[in-house]
């Protein structure tokens, strides 16, 4: 039975607090309602890295997140470190801990910002006027508030985050990532990047569901606006491993790609 939308929402996905951050209910994922969705994990560490590096002349060209364990919706320890800070390139990393245990880590490569854009523009489908309502799906028990149903706004071209098969979905972050701050374009894309696994997920009757263990975001440039089109599909050649591939598009063309390694989900979070 779908849970109705809440009347009030937390001020952001994360609140800053002494010693780290506190995750709000807007970060909750569909697998276990006390565990964060991968999107907020990616978004949080992109914020940490960007704040630590503080370089407006560079753009993140590659951002890789490894989710080592479920991240609870709780107070979290966070850290970031600049590994290299050169004239035209930089490397930075971040991590999330809970009660001293490392739960997720990220690495990033930064290069000089693109100048004279020469890539071919492509025909891009317009953003539909109707907002999708994942929380109303009869077969899904999304937490409310939660990331899929409340933290992001989705406009569907084809497929959906609840239907098996490739999908084409416009998405935008619908709440602040960090309370009292406006998310940068990089932070917005990073937070949305994990949605590819939901947009393109494959489910075969009688088989177990898959879950992704990482997210690799490759960017050519930053988007023109807050809206990102995710063109996602899953490829696999065995019964236990897969990869979700997503092309990221804005109003004028391709901005990058996302790859997500997938494995059979643990039995305790199988639907």
N-to-C SSE string, H for helix and E for strand: EEHEEEEHEEHHEEEEE
Q: Class by helix and strand content?
A: mainly beta
> What composes the largest sheet?
13 strands, antiparallel
CATH superfamily (homologous) name:
Acyl-CoA thioesterase, double hotdog domain
Roughly how much helix do the residues carry, as a percent range? 10-25%
Distance between the termini: 14 Å
Strand content: 35-45%
Uncertain ranges:
none
Quote the average pLDDT.
92
The total tally of domains equals 1
Sum up the overall morphology in one term.
Answer: globular
> What is the radius of gyration?
18 Å
The CATH class label is: Mainly Beta
CATH architecture: Beta Barrel
The number of helical runs is 4
Q: Which fold does the CATH topology refer to?
A: Porin
Number of DSSP-assigned strands: 13
Write the layout of secondary structure elements.
Blueprint: E1 14-17, E2 20-23, H1 38-53, E3 58-67, E4 75-85, E5 89-98, E6 101-112, H2 147-151, E7 152-158, E8 167-173, H3 185-193, H4 196-199, E9 210-212, E10 214-219, E11 228-235, E12 241-249, E13 254-264
Antiparallel strand pairs: 1-2, 2-4, 3-6, 3-10, 4-5, 5-6, 7-8, 8-11, 9-13, 10-13, 11-12, 12-13
Q: What structural keywords apply?
A:
13% helix; 271 residues; Porin; single chain; mainly beta; 4 helices
Describe the structure.
With 271 residues, the protein is mainly β. The chain has a single domain (14-113, 129-269), classed as Acyl-CoA thioesterase, double hotdog domain (Porin), CATH 2.40.160. Helix content is 13%, strand content 38%. Strands 1, 2, 3, 4, 5, 6, 7, 8, 9, 10, 11, 12 and 13 form a 13-stranded antiparallel beta sheet that branches. The longest helix is centred in the N-terminal third of the chain and has 16 residues, at 38-53. It is globular, with a radius of gyration of 18 Å.
